[in-house]
Amino acid sequence: MEEHLAEFRAAGIQPLAISVDTPEESRDLSTKAGYTFPLLSDRNAETIRRYDLLHKGAGEHGRDIARPAEFLVDRHGVVRWRNLTGDFRIRARPEQMLEAARQLR
Amino acid sequence: MSRRINWPLWSGFALSIAAFFSYFFFFIRFPATRDVPWATLILFAIAIVLLVIGLRKAVGRRILAWIVTILGILVCAFFCFAIFLATKMLPASQGAPGIGAKAPGFALLDTNRRPVALAQLLAEPSTKGVILIFYRGYW
């Protein structure tokens, strides 16, 4: 995602990553991976639950975490594209997301 | 009395362990070897061949040879389970907003503990949209 950041910006799209990690844990990851887009902290998984993405007990120490998913949301707050991977190792490629993003007005 | 080390047996075992960790520490970083772990599977195949050669070669201490061989195979089996089965055990998420649905709003803290609200971002004139990337976390 970081590599394609400029392309997303050019398309007017802001990426946001969300997990149950604390801001400090996210900052660790962000620094190590060199991410410059926001990593948001959904500590009690409230937002994750509202998106029905809760994966109970799947985290470290049996923590509830999010199952991986991507959503492209337009200016009106409507979902225009989404990817619910069937295998958590396999994520949407940035190219796929960019193609969907370029179709937004 | 010289002890002859059963090289195929032990190198096969060492390779099976190395193959296992090689995936999680190295191959997982590249989609080409992550999504279908062919590189790791090749290493496992070589490891198992070595183990079988070592097992057949074993003169005396056969029980140990059998144990080592079976352990090596178990490491490979566990890897296959972890990669091909466990990673697919995901919740159905039928309630997740589909195309055309409204994305639930939120206001969450970023890495500097500053709140970021979806509605606010979408209201910015330069924003055509937002990509929400939900991920498992850093561990």
Description:
The complex is a heterodimer of chains A (105) and B (139). By secondary structure, chain A is an alpha+beta fold. Chain A has one domain (2-102): Glutaredoxin (3-Layer(aba) Sandwich). Chain A has 4 helices and 6 strands; from the N terminus they run H-E-H-E-H-E-E-E-E-H. The longest helix of chain A has 11 residues, at 23-33. Chain A is globular and about 40 Å long. Chain B has a domain at 7-88. Chain B has 139 residues and is mainly alpha-helical. At the A-B interface, strand 1, helix 2, strand 2, helix 3 and strand 3 of A face helix 5 and strand 3 of B. Strand 1 of chain A pairs parallel with strand 3 of chain B.
What's the arrangement of secondary structure elements?
The complex is a heterodimer of chains A (105) and B (139).
Chain A: H1 5-10, E1 13-19, H2 23-33, E2 39-41, H3 46-50, E3 54-55, E4 65-66, E5 69-74, E6 79-83, H4 94-102
Parallel strand pairs in A: 1-2
Antiparallel strand pairs in A: 3-4, 5-6
Chain B: H1 7-25, H2 31-34, H3 38-57, H4 62-85, E1 107-109, E2 115-117, H5 118-123, E3 129-134
Antiparallel strand pairs in B: 1-2
Helix pairs in contact in B: 1-3, 1-4, 3-4
Describe the global form of chain A.
Answer: globular
Structural class of chain A: alpha+beta
* Spatial separation of the terminal alpha carbons of chain A: 22 Å
Number of domains of chain A: 1
CATH structural architecture of chain A: 3-Layer(aba) Sandwich
Q: Count of DSSP E strands of chain A?
A: 6
CATH topology grouping of chain A: Glutaredoxin
End-to-end CA span of chain B:
49 Å
Poorly predicted tracts of residues of chain B: none
The SSE order of chain A reads HEHEHEEEEH
Strands ordered across the widest β-sheet of chain B: 1-2
| Principal-axes shape call of chain B | elongated
Average pLDDT, all residues of chain B: 90
Q: Helical proportion of chain B?
A: 40-55%
Strand content of chain B: 5-15%
